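QA checklist item 7 of 12: single-chain prediction sanity check.
[x] sequence parsed
[x] length recorded as 408
[x] structure emitted
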Amino acid sequence: MGDFYQNGIITTLHNLTDRPIDDLEAELTLFSKTRPMSLVLPSLYSELQGPALDNIVTELTQVPYLAEVVIGLDRADRAQYQHALEFFNRLPQSHRVLWNDGPRLRAIDERLRAEGLAPTEMGKGRNVWYCLGYVLARGQTESVALHDCDIVTYDRSMLARLIYPVANPTFNYEFCKGFYARVADGRLNGRVTRLLVTPLLRSLKKIFGHLDYLEFLDSFRYPLAGEFSFRIDVINDIRIPSDWGLEIGVLSEMKRNYATNRLCQVDIADRYDHKHQDLSKDNDDGGLSKMSIDISKAIFRKLATNGVVFSSETFRSIKATYYRIALDFIETYRNDAVINGLDFDVHNEEESVELFAENVLKAGLHFLENPKEKPFIPSWSRVRSAIPDIFEQLVEAVEADHQEFMGR
């Protein structure tokens, strides 16, 4: 059970009463008459074979207020795309699957690439970007929610609570971030948030003093949550990273584009679990190792755009400060776990902190050594300026794929 405490500069909407899902959905159905809603699901094909997505789709079949579901499908061949169409076909809502590896969408990607406008690498950010472009192109909805496809504890109340703040016409929020306790199987999860992001933000505040951006990020209970919602106009001008910096990048864009009273976070679940990434100690291109580097770079880039000047000596100081603060957090989390009867592996936690400390420095040095790097995917408003009919192309390609394989 949450409390009503407001911390930081972002409004927190709590779960104070365990309000019945039927109540929430009745209100959302009413809101949908004037503020239609859509859901974006970025998915790997492998997730269709995992333990989570089948249940997610089953839950979504019971949702009465969604006008549209848009699924972004990555790493799928022709037969797998056809299987995905059949897999999602039980959804009663209007829905389409974007076959990102199919020839039609690949052709659009190549045209964008020729103009220097395509995402530079594969990944969730690219998938989300094309899905949001499709939602814009369709122009059928006013509020959009997005969540991952690997949530093994999913139920439809998560979606209802997530989209409610931007769907309620009496609220003025443009963006809402979901949060939850990462506790499952008798232990604390969420290592990258607990052991990287929070201590890194605290170390940056210690070194640079008060900065609005750092206070902003530190106000979010779970800044790396893959669940967020927004009003449709947010999509036009947002510029997001294509790598693991997506969630931090989205928050950074909200800070740049909107006053903080137009942003909020909402408690969407008492329990939350999804697939866990390996630490990947010996591989900077995978697992939590790559994630920690990408996230650190995303934070450093944003600070640089705010006028912070970095040097190699600065990043060594950041690493040392981060390491000490993160170790102190381990003791805090251990005590929290013990009082709640949870398992806690101090050795594993310290191994993670040691890796993250090295990667904070690697991220900083990469930032210094690659000043011309363009990490952000262009906004859709820029893409439309360069290719005025891009939305028509995108809708036609998705529809042609659907017609070819579904025959309707």
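[x] summary fact logged: Residues 278 and 287 are 5 Å apart (CA to CA).
[ ] second reviewer sign-off
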